[in-house]
Every structure is written in structure tokens, then in C-alpha cells.
Amino acid sequence: MAIFGLIEYDQATLEVRAIYDDIMATRKTDYITNFWKAIAHDPPTLKRTWESIKQVMAPGALDAVTKEMIYVAVSVTNQCEYCIATHTASARDKGLTDTQFKELMAVVGMASETNRLVKGYQVEIDERFKT
Amino acid sequence: MAIFGLIEYDQATLEVRAIYDDIMATRKTDYITNFWKAIAHDPPTLKRTWESIKQVMAPGALDAVTKEMIYVAVSVTNQCEYCIATHTASARDKGLTDTQFKELMAVVGMASETNRLVKGYQVEIDERFKT
Amino acid sequence: MAIFGLIEYDQATLEVRAIYDDIMATRKTDYITNFWKAIAHDPPTLKRTWESIKQVMAPGALDAVTKEMIYVAVSVTNQCEYCIATHTASARDKGLTDTQFKELMAVVGMASETNRLVKGYQVEIDERFKT
Amino acid sequence: MAIFGLIEYDQATLEVRAIYDDIMATRKTDYITNFWKAIAHDPPTLKRTWESIKQVMAPGALDAVTKEMIYVAVSVTNQCEYCIATHTASARDKGLTDTQFKELMAVVGMASETNRLVKGYQVEIDERFKT
Amino acid sequence: MAIFGLIEYDQATLEVRAIYDDIMATRKTDYITNFWKAIAHDPPTLKRTWESIKQVMAPGALDAVTKEMIYVAVSVTNQCEYCIATHTASARDKGLTDTQFKELMAVVGMASETNRLVKGYQVEIDERFKT
Amino acid sequence: MAIFGLIEYDQATLEVRAIYDDIMATRKTDYITNFWKAIAHDPPTLKRTWESIKQVMAPGALDAVTKEMIYVAVSVTNQCEYCIATHTASARDKGLTDTQFKELMAVVGMASETNRLVKGYQVEIDERFKT
Predict the structure, then answer these.
(1) Mean pLDDT, chain F, as a whole number?
(2) Which chains touch A (3+ CB pairs under 8 A)?
(3) Over chain A, what HEC string results?
(4) Using one digit for the tens of pLDDT, what is the confidence trace for E7-25?
């Protein structure tokens, strides 16, 4: 269980409830995931993290599914099981197909492999790619 | 410089040249990056890695730019400077806009932050996300 | 369960018991955590690791709580759940407050985010920070 | 060089200048590091990141030097050379002594070692540390 | 459970069965691990990954046990519990002794520690080691 | 350059010289690498690290080349360029052939790839591998 436990809506202060309300409204759901309930013990972190996530994950030049895929790619590389499970679910809710998921995993795997080969072989950046 | 140096086209065996040719033809370029020239000292690895990359990075359910973005996201998370430089260049060649790049970085950054918060707060996976 | 199981005090050799005794005396506890019981199957590693930890974690220019916080910061970044759980508990035993824990997590999260932005934007070290 | 280059104060928009001004005022310096100049190409990221860093790194239950040490610990673990160089300099400016730096590094090193031993020996969390 | 579940032999297509057969024949076992059953939902990834693993893990200039040890070293560093458990078992099946396992872990731990010290102290590569 | 600079033999205290002497005698060389000269500013860390490395890297159930390979595998996974360069050189001095190096890199690359696939597909440990 989370270190300080989970703060449910009923137990939350008005400040925390307002953020839960915004999460649910933005995501069009009546469910708050454990992550938010766990960090709600630190309202400034809850508020800052939600506002940042809300801004960053909103569709823009990249659509919502693409952003979720990138999120999953980072979470797999960082080996965060919670983040993989929740954001894969979220990506699928937003329309990620099974085939897209499989291609996503294939790219994540290959990039991880070549990242290591590059370092191991001590490859220097080509002149033309030095910005 | 790479551990065994770089194998230029002129110095390459016929086997290696055939792979260089396929790389250039597939990517519609006359340039081979240092990575391939560095691992060309191990032809089975060159061949296996190229054939895997060729298959995995080909447009499918995900387009080429999306795949390059995922590649960059993994490379940033793994802190591989070479891979970041070359695949960012490649993504831009394929049409990644500056705005898309900035959104990509914002998502990579936020995911890295929340990945850590999840672990630090010892958040458990919600029942509904247990597959 | 740990790969070779856990060596309890009663089962331990005199050599291992002496280290367990030192751990308990140093930490003013009668409890040995699973980590020590798991690596006790390799007495040289048990001894070397304990002596190093004892030296490194002893209060010095940094106090014991600060050292535990740094330990937790590294463990969260490395995603080691066991280390996070045990060293967070240890830090709290030594006086870490809930508010301090929350600030610790906030810094760990932000550093993880900016670490990625730096690499992704390919930022070079300012002249003045080159040692 | 950074991917889009560095935005100097003179070239900056009013929006970016206002953030540069706040960074300099908050940090009591007339110098803006390359990091901020590099991400200034994306004003929302510049603003969000600065406001978060400003909030998170401000002295609170943890003092400024302790927060910088945690930042360095994470950056070393993530292998971000830029972040290590700049935040070590910043920590020393704020009063980190050489002896404290050495103890910080010793703890970071030991935590990294035991993090791996724990995973390799497949050590399970002690019942008493399950939150 | 794996995201798409596990494909058992009986449920598998002929294409997947042929790969399962080759895995069992190559490894002289009648057991397929969950990993292959999980990625079997993406036959091209199953096929590419198996053929690569088969080639890479075959005894060559390095024997099979040495290759498994390297695999475990990487998996411990990446904190992949599944990979640690299965490849440690595989290494032991192939002849890894308990003493060798302990030495393997000791090296993995020490390398992780010195990797961090090097970065934290900002150590530059000696002239003689620049390739 | 290293944060506190490098301590050359001539400048070293008797305590540090004794360790340098032991390093040179153990390794049968008259050269001290930058790593030791950099951490020599913290004699307890120099002494503890050297004694640990000396014990751990000594041939035992695993020979010296195998231990160096494992060291390189960890360093590549942790992306420590200094450690990769120096320990690859060291491994080759001790007899690692070019072919062995190539096989080492191939295994490191493949393990990195499958580590990610396992997490991404959320594969659970097979009952038989639960220790």
C-alpha cells in the first residue's frame, strides 16, 4: 500500500477535492487512480503535478494517443510497472490498437538494444549530427 | 573513436557492402552513419541489427515519424547522446516539426518525474488495471 | 523468496553471527533485515558490504537522516522497491518527518524530469561549470 | 550545441525575459545557465519547469543545500553530466563543503551497489516493511 | 498477467507452434516460458526475437554459461525481475555454480558503485584509453 | 577535469601512496588511472573502494577476463563511458579477444531489448521460477 495510504474523495480537503474534480472532468471519468490519491498527502505536489500533466498531455501538435505511447515508452525504459499498467490502459481507452501497441513495444525494444551497442562500441557522433 | 574504428564502404567486404547498400536504398540516402560502420566489424551483428531495425522502423500501424519519436524517447531515457542526436535528426528529416519535438520532450520529462513519484510513494496498481 | 533463502541467526556460522551482532549493536535493534540474511550465503560479500555500509552511513559531515534521504533518492531513481521500503522506514526511524519525505520526493521527481530535458535538448555544459 | 541554440536575454521575448528576470532575482545572480536558454524555445515548458523548480527547490522542511545534494544524487544515478556539473557547483555555492560532497558520493555509490545486490539475490520485502 | 494473456501450444497457430518447437528443440526442454507465450501475440516480434536470441546466446567464443551470466548482469542493472529469475535459473541449469553466482553478483555490485563515483567526481578518460 | 583535480603520486600523502603502490603491484603496472587519482581526495573512499575492487576482481570461481566482461556489461547498461573505455582496455589486456568482445556486446544488446519487452508486455514470473 502507498506509504501514507490513499486519500479517498470523501476524506479529502476541499483543496484536494477541487483537483480530483478537475482530473475527473478533464478525463471524462468518475475514477481517480491510486497515484493521485497517494500524492494527495502533499497537496502542493498533487496540484503542481496535475497541472503539469494536464498541460503536457493535452492534445496539441501531438494527439492524445501519441502522447500516451511516449509515456509508456519512457515508463517501460524506467521499469515503472504501475505507470506501464495505467498508461497502457489509458492509451487503449483513447484508441491505441493492439497492433499499434505491438509496434510500440518493438521500437522500444530495438532502441534499448542499439542504445547499448552504441555505448559499448564507443561510437562518436557523426560530424553532420553535431548540432 | 569507435573501438575498432569505422569501416568505410571502400574497405568493406562484399557482405558488408550489401548491407550498406540496403541501408542506403531503404533510407533513400547515400550516407551511412557511424553506428553501422562501427558494428560492421561484427557482420552477424550488423546484419541482424539492420534487418531488425528495418522491419521494426518501417511504417505500419504507426507511421515513420511516430516510430522515430518513440526511439528518441527511449534514447533520452537511456541517456544515449549518439542515439538522441541521430534519431532526432532522422525524425526531423521525416517531418517532425519543432513544436512536435517540444511536446515530445515535455512528455518524456513528465513521465520521468511521475515514474519516480510512483515508486517513492510506493503506489500499488489499482485493481482495475491488473490485467 | 531470496535465491538461496534467508540465513537466520540460529543457523548462522560464528563468522556470520559476529556480523549480525555488529549490525544489531550498531543499529541498536534486535532485527536483521532480509537483505543481510540473503547475502549471508556469501560471507565475504556480507562482511565487505556491511563494513562499507557501516563506514559510509555513519554520521559525519552529513547526519544520519540526510544520508538515509540520499540513499532513498538513489533507490527511487534505480527503481529498487526493497531498498525504497526499508530505507524510507529507516529514515523515518531516525527522525525524517512526513514533510521532509514529501520534499525529498518532490526534488527526486523534478531532478528526473530536468535530467531528461537536458539530454533531449542536447544542452552543453556552460564554460563556467567546466571544472 | 543545444538543438535549437541558446536564447540570450537580448534576443528573448518579453515573456521569456520575465522568467529570466525571476530566475536571476530568485537565485541572486546575473547569470542564466544554458539549460534555461535551451528550453526557452518552448516558453510553456520554460515557464512550467521554472515555476516547479522554484517551488520545489525553495528551502522548506529541507534546507537548500540538502535539496541540491538530493538533486546531485539523482543526476549521478541518471548519469546526466550537465546536471551533475551545474548542481554540484550550485550546492557548493550554497555552502556544501568538500567533506560533505565526498560523503554524498560515498552514499550514492553504496546505495547503487546494494540496489543491485538486492535485485540479484531476489530479496523480498520483510513483512514489517510492507506498508 | 501478461497484457494479452499467454498463448499455449494448443491454441497457437502453425507459425507460432513452429517457433515453440524450435525453442524446445534448441533448448532441449518441453517447457516454453511465459515470455515467449506473451509476445506470441505478435508473431513477427516472436520470430525476430527468438532468431536473434538463438543466434546470440549460442555458444561461440564465449560459452553458454558465460553468456547467461552477462544476461543476468544486464538484467540486474536494468532491474528486470522476470529476466533475473529466469536467466539465473537458466544459468544454473547450464552449470553455473553457487560460488560463481556470488562472484557474479559481487562484480555487478562493485561496477554499479564505481560507475556512479566516476560520474559524480567528473572523471575524464585518460589519454591512453581514448581509442 | 575531475572535480578536485587528480592527485599524482608525487603529490600524494604516504597513506595514498601506499594504496597507489598496492594498485600498481596488484595490477603489475606502473600506471594509475584517473579514477583513483580523482577519488584520492577522499582517502577513506579510495581505500575502501580499492580493497573492495581488489577482493572482488581477483580471479576465483570466475577468471579475470570473465569478471572484466561482467564489469563492462554493467557499465554499458549504466552508460558510463569512462568505465566502458577503461575496463574494455583492461579486459583486452587480460586476454579478451575481439570475437569475445563482439559476442559480449551482442548479449548485452539482446538482454536490454528483452528486458523492455518483458516489462512492456507485463509478463509475470512462471510458477517454476519463483524461488
Answers:
(1) 97
(2) B, C, D, E, F
(3) CCCCCCCCHHHCCHHHHHHHHHHHHHHCCCCCCHHHHHHCCCHHHHHHHHHHHHHHHCCCCCCHHHHHHHHHHHHHHCCCHHHHHHHHHHHHHCCCCHHHHHHHHHHHHHHHHHHHHHHHCCCCCCHHHCC
(4) 999 999 999 999 999 999 9
Sign, CA dihedral E59-E60-E63-E68, equals negative
Please tell me which chains touch B, using 3 or more CB pairs under 8 Å as the contact test.
A, C, D, E, F
Whole-number Å distance between alpha carbons of A105 and A72:
9
Average pLDDT over residues A104-120: 98
Report the mean per-residue pLDDT for chain D. 97
* pLDDT greater than 80 at residue C1: no
Give CA–CA dist C84/C89, Å, rounded: 8
What's residue D130's pLDDT? Answer: 85
Q: Within 13 Å, how many C-alpha atoms sit on residue C6's CB side? A: 17
Asked whether E12 and E36 are in contact (CB, 8 A), the reply is no
Q: State the smallest CA–CA distance between residue D43 and chain E in angstroms.
A: 31
How distant is the Cα of F56 from the closest Cα of chain C, in angstroms? 9
Angle (deg, nearest 10), helices F98-120 and F81-93: 140
Q: Return the sign of the alpha-carbon dihedral for residues F89, F90, F91, F97.
A: positive
Residues F49 and E113: beta-carbon distance below 8 Å: yes
Q: What is the mean pLDDT of residues E115-121?
A: 98
Rounded Cα distance, B50 and B56, in Å: 10
Checking if the pLDDT of C131 tops 80, the result is no
Those residues whose C-beta lies under 8 Å from the C-beta of residue E74, and which sit 6 or more positions away, are F73, F74, F77, F107, F108, F111, F112, F115
Could you tell me which chain B residue has the CA closest to the CA of D75? B79
* A–B interface: beta-carbon pairs under 8 A: 209
Q: Which residues of F touch A72 (CB under 8 A)?
A: 120
